[in-house]
Amino acid sequence: MSQVLAEVLDAELELVRDLIAACREEQQALRRDDLNRLITAVEIKKKLAVELAAVEKRRLEAQAELGAGAEIAGRTGTGLAEKKADLVKALRELKEINSTNELLIRQSLAYARRMLALLLPDGGREAGEVLFSRTV
Fold it and tell me: How far apart are CA 71 and CA 75, in angstroms?
């Protein structure tokens, strides 16, 4: 059963690495203001997120089959601890990239709001209707 869990962890790590690549692509698109590239990156991220959720479910099932007390970190002989460490490291990297992307998106949104306020009467509101949402 440890072999099944190892395979699931490998699959999960591969998906996280693919997600990191998609997030980096998203970041480049945001920096270059490339809408087509951004749309493509977001679609890839959506697909990978769905796949990652399915693999995560398989991982939880495999862990449950190993036993409620079976902790990945304690299984160094099977290489599971190393796989877990690699996955945790990749997830931290993904979180950092997502934080940067969030900042870039907020900056772009703030810029767009300022431009709308300058270009449109009532700061972007027309007949009581919001032309640009204030929420992200």
Answer: 7
- Look up residue 134 and give its DSSP letter: S
CA dihedral of 38, 39, 44, 47, whole degrees rounded to 10: 140
pLDDT tens digits, 81-134: 899 999 999 999 999 999 999 999 999 999 888 888 888 877 656 544 555 555
Distance between CA 15 and CA 54 in Å, rounded?
A: 11
Determine how many CB atoms are found less than 10 A away from the CB of residue 128.
Answer: 6
Burial of 116 (0-12, 13-18, 19+ CB in 10 A): middle
pLDDT digits (tens, 9 = 90+) for 21-33: 999 999 999 999 9
Residue 125 gets the label, from left (phi > 0), alpha (psi -120 to 50) or beta, of beta
- The CATH number corresponding to 2-103 among 1.10.150.120, 1.20.140.10, 1.20.58.300, 1.10.3720.10 equals 1.20.58.300
